[in-house]
Amino acid sequence: MSGKSTVACALSRELHYRGHHTYVLDGDNLRHGLNRDLSFKAEDRTENIRRVGEVAKLFADAGTICIASLISPYRRDRDACRALLPDSRFIEVFMDLPLELCEARDPKGLYKLARTGKIKGFTGVDDPYESPVNSEIVIKMEGGECPSPKAMAQQVLSYLEKNGYLQA
Question: Which domains can be identified in the chain, with CATH numbers?
Answer without folding.
Answer: 4-162 (3.40.50.300)
